[in-house]
Design a protein that fits this description.
By secondary structure, this protein is mainly α. About 70% of the residues lie in helices and about 0% in strands.
């Protein structure tokens, strides 16, 4: 019987599929680290108080990239190039979600609206990341090889999501509510489409590596399409709601290190 746990166990047990999984994850996290570092450097003067939190966000993402690379190294594996069709972060940027890299590469300060856009984009993508890590945590929190990494990254993603909720609500209270809701909706609808396409691409690569029969690949593809249909109909709404989190000031401290991995 196919399940999330059995599927990931199959990927985990094969060096080539595990290497591809970790390479994709490490690349995305490292890219997120760069983006947050640039945003922190370009925060407008009126919002300089956010810079340390954005820096912390980026430091966490860099740490996650190092963790995935360390998990490969632990098994004597080297990263592989990330197939473009599986590059979630770059596909989001290509489709205009978040802040354009050209803007981040310049030295021009960002505007308050840019920061609102960044936070709205992060609120959507961190929802996805938090849910994915919660799923892995449910099944692999006690795994001898990846359990510690899963728990650490899951905690961080929950903090990132809480931070986005709190800061977006702060901006909403100062008059940016309509812009936030519009941006959240646009980001969510684009994200679910890109997530579907990336999921299909990743599963196709895994299927070739693991030599899945055609019927198994078809069932997995149908499942991905079914998730997208649900998210397109109603599921995207969970990505646009805002509520004050239980974890207040979740990124107010310094980033935690991961000496056991990196």
């Amino acid at each position: 019987m196919l399940s999330a746990k059995s599927l990931f166990e199959e990927i985990l047990d094969n060096d080539e599929s595990f290497r591809l999984f970790c390479s994709i994850a490490a690349s995305g996290e490292s890219q997120g680290g760069w983006e947050n570092a640039r945003i922190a450097a370009l925060v407008p003067l009126s919002e300089r108080g956010l810079a340390p939190k954005i820096t912390r966000h980026g430091a966490d993402e860099d740490k996650h990239g190092r963790i995935f690379n360390a998990l490969m190294k632990k098994r004597g594996l080297e990263p592989v190039p990330v197939p473009p069709e599986t590059d979630y972060t770059m596909l989001l940027e290509k489709h205009g979600i978040g802040l354009a890299h050209e803007k981040l590469k310049s030295d021009e300060p960002l505007t308050v609206q840019d920061i609102v856009t960044y936070l709205a984009h992060s609120r959507v993508t961190e929802q996805r990341a938090s849910e994915q890590m919660e799923l892995l945590r449910k099944h692999f929190a006690d795994h001898p090889d990846i359990g510690r990494a899963v728990r650490m990254i899951s905690d961080d993603e929950d903090n990132h999501l809480a931070y986005c909720h709190e800061e977006l609500l702060r901006f909403a209270y100062t008059g940016h509510g309509r812009a936030i809701q519009r941006t959240l909706r646009e980001c969510a609808l684009a994200e679910i489409r890109i997530y579907r396409d990336v999921s299909l691409a990743v599963m196709a690569h895994m299927g070739r590596i693991l030599e899945w029969p055609r019927a198994k690949s078809a069932v997995l593809a149908a499942g991905i399409h079914a998730v997208y249909a649900y998210e397109r109909l109603a599921g995207w709404r969970r990505m646009v709601s805002l509520k004050m989190p239980e974890r207040r000031d979740a990124l107010g401290g310094s980033a935690t290190t991961a000496p056991e991995f990196a």
